Amino acid sequence: MPQGDKSKYTDKQKRKAEHIAESYEERGVAKDEAERRAWATVNKDDGGGNKSGSGRGTRTGNPAAHRGGEKGGKASAARPASERSKSAKKAAETRKKNATGSWGTPPVFRIGEALDRTGYFSFAYA
């Protein structure tokens, strides 16, 4: 594959590079430099072209996409402790509620018991 050839990249990778380049241009980076940075980011994320015959690649977890999480973490740290504590308590309450379900505590099954579609127990003996 000659240098600069993008034939081994999928359409999705090309769109991704285009969006990244646009973002750089909006922030005042020159067009050529924005394009270089965009393709470097795609290569970093995906390990090169993913089209058939390019050696393909394994899923890498899109590390560049995790920058948003870092930014969100900084925003959270900037909030007052009382606000973070209130939010954490609310989240814990939701997790507790969702863990038990709307019916209360989860049912305990014994050997041979099964919950049928109607919600009633049916007994199956072997």
TrEMBL record:
Organism from which the protein derives: Pelagibacterium lentulum
Listed name of the protein: Plasmid stabilization protein
Bias type Basic and acidic residues, positions: 1-48, 81-96
Region entry Disordered, spans: 1-109
Lineage of source species: Bacteria, Pseudomonadati, Pseudomonadota, Alphaproteobacteria, Hyphomicrobiales
Residue ranges, compositional bias (Gly residues): 49-58
